[in-house]
Structure prediction request, 556 residues.
Amino acid sequence: MPSRRFSRPRAAVVVTAAVALLLAACTPGGGTTTNEPSGEPVTGGTLTYASGDAEPSCLDPHVGGNYPQALIATQYLESLVSLDEDGEVIPWLATEWDASDDGLEWEFTLRDDVTFTDGTPFDAEAVAANIAHVQDPATASSTGYLALAKIKDVVAVDDHLVRLEMSAPDSALLESLSQVWVAMESPKALERSQEENCAAPVGTGPFVVETWERQDSVTLVRNEDYNSPPADVAEATEGSDLPYLDSIVWRFIPDSASRYAALQSGEVQVIDNAQPDTIRSAESDDAIEELDAPRPGAANRIELNSGKAPFDDERVREAFIRSVNVDDGIQSLFFGTAERSYSPLSSVEPLGLSLPDLFTVDTDAASDLLDEAGWDERDADGYRVKDGERLSLDFPVSTNQSIPAEQSLFEQIQADAKTAGFEVNLQPLDLSSWYGVLAENDYDLVSAPYTKVGPDVLRILYHSDSITPAPSGYFANLAQVDDAELDDLLTQASATSDADERAALYEQAQQIILEGYYILPLYDQQNHFLRSSTVQGLRAMPTVSTPTFAGAWLAP
Prediction:
């Protein structure tokens, strides 16, 4: 089939995967996301990683699409494009791309020297199979499904040229394609049952899933055929033989104290979900170093369910937010490892709008707002009542995703809110039960981490279309914001390729979200990793701030 060529929105760049690893040193906007290696790389050895996140129920991030999947899948799957340290899109499995003037067609030129670890060639048909897999309702994708929602059709123009036909322009398409939730998997492997594919996805990455012992660990082994840079860029990585490690044992250790003890003893070499006090304690230990990689996309926040009473009343939403002192809680509980956010977007997102004046504590104003909204009486326990009903809020908390310091912060918020007359019912739940409560709309407050690089995450989280569940049953608009003006702004921002116009639209959208008191921003979504000083070359991917061990090694 003949290929059409389109005007290019930016200069095409050609960078191989290995060189891109060298570029992916920092998250956009800052953050210490790499450790400078000392000495020459050493080949061999087994690294043990201990995760405090929930063990995935499926190792294929197309299915569902949560952060624990991204953490491990980064080691064996690769995406079409990636990001550099400035947040600019760079080639990965695709070497260049072109877009039509109307943004409705994109063509990607693919690497012709890449093979999946089961021997299947990486080509245009593989890209088509992967996008079809993410979009298939039977896959039950959420994160990937929402990211690729505007792709209407995929055409394999030739073996290494693929065309994406869009239902509407998508200015965030390249950012979406950089994420591991839409990474490339072997089309032959995707033909297996979902159970088989969940147990051992097949990618092009530096490692291969060898075994998965549930409730314990996943063993990854070196991809012996991982593609090194071609001759034209070999000089940049002279002497390299990526990956260096023979294997990675990916353990699941939910208890934070046990993880840290295992790191101190040398039983494991890297841990995630490091607690604030642990991070500070580790500063005095020369044998342990920190990798700080705040996530892009949305800030960590509490969302107020405006789709039902009592938070369908803006006065009640504002009263709640004005009655709680988040700043003091963060200062006392996080030991300087987290900074208060006043924005819907992460601090690493350059288009984030911060409006701190909206979040100052004002108990008198909160009281007046509740009186005005009809919650003007208190019961014997001091809680506000209206028409005989207590002002009671259900707050389900995922204990798999919320670290102990954050859960303590929620308890402080609960105490503050009680003084104002709100009853906050904290409900600690495992991840599965937590998702179930959200699906039943049985919540008033929720802290729901969601990662999508770039400001388009605002459309995913706050456009009214996102109140409708994805095939997985998950819906991203947990604040249930339904505002026609906001919808229009987010739709326009998604459609325009003009950077200044896009920035202005996202600023207006954030104003509506913040001034409507739909969310209570807390701080950046935290990614604190602690590693043994023997681990060299560890980096965090700017796409979703997951660590990559492709260029890591164990020093003697």
